[in-house]
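User: Can you help me understand a structure? I only have the sequence.
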Amino acid sequence: MLVTMRLSALFTVLCLVHPDPAWATARSSASGTSAAAPGRGEAPLNSTHANASVLACSALEGTFPTKLWVPGQANYTAENQHFWSPTDYASPLCVLTPSSASDVSTAVRILSRLKAKFAVRGGGHMPIPGYANINGGVLIALSDLGQLALANDSSYVSVGPGRRWEEVYAYLQPYGLIALGGRVGLVGVPGLLLGGGISFYSNQYGFAADNVIAYQVVLASGAIVTATASAYADLFWALKGGGNSFGIVTRFDLLTYSSPSICAGIMEYAGDQQQPFLAAVANFGQYGSADTKAAVIPSIFMLGALNTTVYTTALFYDTTANCSQPALSNFTALPAIANSYASTTLAAYVAGTDALIGDGTRQEFRVISSLATAAALQVVHDTFVQMVLDHIWDVDGIQASVAFQPVTSHFIQQGIAHGGNPQAVDVASAPYFWMVENFSWNSAADDAKIHAFALNVTSVIDAQLSAVGAKARYQYMNDAGSGQAIFQNYGAGNLAKLKAIRARYDPAKVYTDLMPGGWKVDLA
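Assistant: Let's start by predicting it. Here is the structure, written out as C-alpha cells:
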C-alpha cells in the first residue's frame, strides 16, 4: 500500500508544470551556492535537459524526502566530494543517496520517464571529470549501499557498490581471507570491477572481474536481476570489463581466497639506479612473474617541488613465511634509500597507501600498452622524463610518474578458465607491460595544460613503441584517460557483441544517453 501511495504521488508530481513548493524553496536557497563551472570535458546541460533535471529532483524529493540533497546542505557537499581527487567534483542539481536496490530502481524509472541526465558514483574510482559526477543533473551516490556479508561457507563475500577496497579487506582480514580488488585502499569497488580490475593477486587468479560470481543489477527498465554464469549469462559476461553501459550494479559477489598474511612494501631508489632498475623491471616482465605469487609495480617518480627523479617498486608476495623470495631478488638487491617491504596483511598495506595520494591533489591518467621488452621500457622512460622536464616541470605541485605493470600469460589465461571476458587479451603475445602515466598537481588553473601534455606525451610514446615493434593492442580501461580507445581494442568481435547486449538490456539507451559518464560501448 505504501509503495502504491508513493508511486501515485510521483505520477502526480510528473504531471505538474512547476516543481513542488518544497523543491522550489530548496532550489531558490541553493541558487547562490552552486556556481562552480562545468568540469573539463563536461558541458552544461541545455535548457531541455535542465528543465528535466528540475522536474527529476522534485520528483525524487517527493519519493525520497530523507535521501535527496541540494546545494548548501552538508550531505550534498559530502557526497559531491566523496572522491579521492578533486577533478571529480562537479555541480549536480541534486544528489540522491539510495539505500537499496529498490530505491535505485525507482530512481531510474523516474529519471528515464523524465529523460533527465544523471551520473552514478560508487565508492569513487575514476578521476576523469564527468565520468562519475555531473553538472546540472542528478548524482546518484551509492554511499549507503554498503553491504559486506561473508557467505556461510566463506567462499564468497557480498559487497555493496558504496564500499572502498580498504573497507573490504579490513572486513575479510579477521577470517584470513581476501577478495581480488584494488591495490590502493581508498578507490571504489564498482569502478575497478566494471573495468576489469588488476589486483596484487592477478598473476594467480586473473582480473578482479574474473572472480565475480554474481552481479545484482538494476536494468534500464527498473527491473532488478542477478546475473551469473548461468542466469543472464550474456549480461554477466559483459559486466566483466564492459563498463557501465548495461545497468547499475547494486551488489557484487566476490570469490574469496585464503591469504592471512603477505609480504608487501615499497622500495625507493636514487636516480643513479636508473639502468639497474630498468634491467630488474625487464627481467621480471620476462621471467620473474613465472612465480604467480609475486607481483610488482615499478615506477618512475618525478617530483617537481624537489627537482628530482626517483625510482620505486611496490613489492608483493603472497606468503605467510619468508619475505626473501627469488622472484623479487633483482629489486631487493638494489641499494634503497627507503624500504618498507616486510610481512604484513593486505588490509594493513592498502590502508597505508592512502598517505601516498596527496590530499586534495588533482589527477590525470593515461594508459600505454607494450610488449614486455627492455627496448619498450627504455623508450617510455627516456621520452617521458625528457618531455616532463621540457614542458610541465614548472607546474605548481607537479608529480609525474609512469608505473610499469607486468602482465603474464597466466594472468590472462585465468579469464579464459573463468568463462572468458570482453577484454579477450591476446595470450599468445604475452607478457606485456600495461603502463599508467599519472599526473598530480595543485591548481585547477593548470588542468588544461596538464591534459594537453598528457595527450601529447602519450601520442609520442605510442608512435615510438610502434616504431620499435613493441606496441600492444589492449588498453586497460581503469588506467585510461578520456578519449583513449578502449572497446575498439578488445578481442575480435567483442565490441559488436557488447553492443548487442547493450541493445538487449537497454534498448532506450538510458545508460548511454541519459548517463553520459564513462566509456560507452555504443560510442566506440
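Now, to help you interpret it: The longest helix spans residues 447-467. The chain has 17 helices and 19 strands. Let me know which part you'd like to focus on.
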